[in-house]
Design goal:
Layout: E1 2-5, E2 16-18, E3 21-23, E4 26-31, E5 36-39, H1 41-47, H2 57-61, H3 69-81, E6 86-94, E7 100-111, E8 117-126, H4 128-150, E9 155-159, E10 164-167, H5 169-174, H6 185-189, H7 194-209, E11 215-222, E12 228-239, E13 245-254, H8 256-270, H9 280-297, E14 300-308, H10 311-318, H11 320-336, E15 343-348, E16 351-359, H12 362-375, E17 380-382, E18 385-387, E19 391-398, H13 405-421, E20 427-429, H14 432-453, E21 457-466, E22 472-483, E23 487-489, H15 491-501, H16 504-522, E24 531-535, H17 538-542, H18 546-557, E25 564-569, H19 570-573, H20 578-589, E26 593-599, H21 606-611, E27 616-619, H22 621-624, H23 631-646, E28 650-653, H24 659-668, E29 672-673, H25 684-690
Parallel strand pairs: 1-5, 19-20, 22-24, 24-25, 25-26, 26-27, 27-28, 28-29
Antiparallel strand pairs: 2-3, 4-5, 4-8, 6-7, 7-8, 9-10, 9-13, 11-12, 12-13, 14-16, 14-19, 15-16, 17-18, 21-22, 21-29, 22-23
Helix pairs in contact: 4-8, 10-11, 14-15, 16-18
């Protein structure tokens, strides 16, 4: 199995909480076709693997603790045989020196249409601390059982006939008695705080009357230092023939440490340490209880799902510590904006959920959601600066939308996705159509993966012309999907899915190789060079392999760098990663043209044009479509042309559809254009004929 490094920035991170921070999650990807294993830096750190020395999967298996590998292998084979898509396992490892480690592996398995293993994406998390806590808890409980059985820890006796008590020295310490004290049974009961004494005494009296043995009880009190101490007692009774109690044998133990372990495990299981809010497990429990109450009382309950719209940008630009700070501030705002009996939970990452156990109608949810949206109107204070972050909200109702906790959360999440796709900073309610859309999107993703593997993608080329001479000077390569059943699928449908899933990276690599081969065939006449433009996605920069990918495409096809133009969007220029600028400068030095697509519609700033190697500005079709009649559009285009010419850049107008537009653009100094007037996107054979 081959390995290479996997940049953490190329993986959609979601982190898991731990004390005062977010517990790192490592990401691994194994491609069954190439037998290639990749892991991010966090994964190497968790597995104690040095960069460049990851080893193969066989080497990783040697870390598994002896005696556990067979069970893990059986569970894994059963998952593959049943085509399970998600598997979660706790794997015990042994580190160098014999130290034990526990790693939780959450794997998503992808299969080809024929059911063969395609690839595995796995998240790993070091859960050693949780296992150690569980081990210590089990050890403490065993010690408690032994102490109760042997009556050697905090041992005391009571003789009814002699009305006399005996206490071990440890019992006197636990009960805070004087060394020579020997209280009777009633005085012994007096060591229990008054607010807890009556129910214990009543239960003990009933147990003696019914000859129940042993009798167990627990209480707590505060010591002289003000700290709470927890106690657990066990009493066994001996009875005479007539059924009267003759002798009592008891143990008393300070279980404060054991209680602390239990509390710690409870916190890890049901609360988010970063915000102290309930986690998903606690939320689901509360939803189920609220559903029972609502069903009994004939009421309605609501669930809201929220996430922070600009969280990724905050993390990338200000750092993960500021991201944590933002999560904590957002949690306080949400809690402060809701009623005391409402529940705010942190689901993970930047996602929150709200349980509203009593609402009268959807209008109530609307009003509460509006209040939450207003809570995000004021800026957050991060690193001594104001940062504005909004939230998107999805809503679902019980019993109208779902009759169980998990489906209700899923439907609220579907509504949240709808809110985000509708412009963010708004509320959307669940509808059955959203479930249908989610199913359709999942089907589209599956079919797109099949398309990438089986060559269903193709490139169409839209001609670029010199407006003055009407000479063909180049083409923009546009991706198309020829579906065997649906026919030609619109890029508006499949490109967003490719971006979200990361498929855009292999699709982009294929497009580069295909376009470069086409350019070689077009450039047989040195006097008439023809340049092909290929669009790049931000995802292609994220893995750090873009320059290598471009070089491979040029070398494999024999394409000259000056025949290739790479189109980027303005949003990429605000990326804080220095590798973006470094990659662009390397490509420019090679002789490749860098074009800024859709100029003027995004994050336009003159500083970006100065500091990045941009050679060409493409004027967006939204400015061109109203020419020549719209004065404002004409002035904007004139300003962009003037800016580009003053900086020595080439200019290309997109969406030219009329002769009047072509003449006006030429008169302004924009001499290159593409659009339906000059030529629609066409297969390569059509473009070859046009040449």
């Amino acid at each position: 199995m081959k390995t290479d490094s996997l940049d953490a920035a190329s993986i959609p991170l979601g982190t898991m909480p731990r004390d005062d921070a977010l517990l790192p999650i490592g990401r691994l990807h194994w491609d069954a076709r190439t037998d290639r294993l990749s892991m991010c830096g966090d994964a190497r750190q968790i597995l104690r693997v040095q960069p460049g020395a990851e080893g193969d999967h066989v080497a990783l298996l040697t870390l598994v603790r002896r005696g556990h590998l067979g069970g893990l292998r059986t569970a894994w084979l059963e998952a593959l045989e049943s085509l399970q898509r998600r598997v979660c396992l706790d794997v015990p490892l042994v580190r160098e020196g014999g130290a034990h480690q526990h790693v939780r592996v959450s794997a998503t398995i992808a299969y080809s249409p024929g059911g063969r293993l395609h690839h595995i994406d796995a998240a790993i998390q070091d859960v050693t601390e949780r296992h150690q806590l569980a081990d210590r808890l089990a050890l403490a409980e065993r010690r408690l059982d032994e102490a109760q059985e042997l009556a050697r820890v905090g041992h005391w006796e009571w003789d009814f006939s002699r009305r006399k008590a005996k206490y071990s020295s440890q019992a006197r310490v636990i009960l805070d008695m004087a060394p020579d004290a020997s209280p009777d049974l009633y005085q012994f009961a007096g060591t229990i705080p008054e607010d807890q004494r009556a129910p214990i005494v009543e239960a003990f009296t009933a147990a003696i009357a019914q000859q129940q043995s042993p009798f167990r009880y627990a209480y707590h009190r505060h010591g002289a230092d003000g700290r709470r101490r927890d106690f657990h007692g066990v009493v066994k009774a001996q009875y005479v023939r007539g059924g009267q109690a003759r002798h009592l044998f008891g143990t008393i133990q300070d279980v404060t440490e054991l209680s602390a372990y239990r509390e710690r495990l409870h916190t890890l299981s049901y609360f988010d340490p970063l915000t102290q809010l309930p986690n998903r497990a606690m939320l689901v429990d509360r939803i189920r209880l609220a559903m029972d109450d609502a069903t009994r009382d004939g009421k309605v309950l609501g669930v809201l799902m929220l996430d922070l719209d600009q969280f990724k940008h905050v993390n990338e630009s200000l750092g993960h510590a500021s991201g944590d700070d933002l999560i904590q501030q957002a949690a306080r705002r949400l809690t402060g904006a809701l009623r005391e009996h409402d529940t705010v939970a942190r689901i993970g990452g930047d996602e929150f959920a709200v349980l509203l156990p009593s609402v009268r109608a959807p209008d109530d949810l609307d009003l509460i959601a509006a209040k939450l949206l207003r809570a995000f109107e004021s800026p957050f204070r991060l690193l001594n600066r104001d940062v504005f972050v909004t939230t998107s909200i999805g809503a679902a109702l019980f019993p109208a939308d779902a009759d169980a906790a998990e489906p209700l959360l899923q439907h609220a999440d579907a509504a949240l996705s709808d809110a985000k796709s509708s412009g963010r900073n708004n509320l959307k309610f669940y509808s059955p159509q959203l479930t249908a859309q989610a199913s359709a999107r999942l089907a589209l993703e599956t079919e797109l993966r099949h398309a990438v593997e089986h060559g269903e993608l193709l490139l169409h080329y839209q001609p670029k012309f010199d407006l003055t001479t009407r000479r063909l000077v180049g083409a923009e390569a546009l991706m198309r999907w020829q579906h065997p059943e649906r026919g030609l699928v619109s890029p508006l449908d499949f490109i967003p899915v490719a971006e979200e899933t990361g498929l855009i990276v292999p699709m982009g690599t294929w497009a580069l190789h295909t376009a470069c081969r086409a350019a070689v065939g077009w450039n047989t006449d040195p006097a008439r060079p023809v340049k092909v433009a290929v669009n790049l996605s931000a995802r292609q920069f994220a893995n750090g392999q873009l320059v290598e990918t471009v070089c491979e495409a040029l070398a494999a096809s024999g394409c000259e760098p000056q025949w290739l133009e790479l189109e980027i969007t303005e949003s990429l220029l605000i990326d804080k990663r220095s590798t973006v600028r470094d990659d662009l400068e390397t490509l420019a030095v090679m002789g490749i043209t860098i074009a800024l697509d859709d100029f003027g519609t995004g994050y336009s700033a003159l500083s970006y044009l100065i500091h990045f190697p941009v050679h060409t500005l493409k004027i967006d079709r939204s400015f061109v479509k109203d020419l020549p009649g719209n004065h404002n559009s004409a002035e904007l285009v004139k300003a962009i042309v003037s800016l580009g010419r003053s900086l020595g850049m080439g200019l290309v107008a997109e969406g030219v559809e009329t002769e009047d537009q072509a003449r006006l653009l030429a008169s302004m100094g924009c001499h290159l254009a593409q659009g339906f007037l000059l030529g629609r996107p066409m297969p390569q054979a059509g473009f070859d004929a046009l040449l």
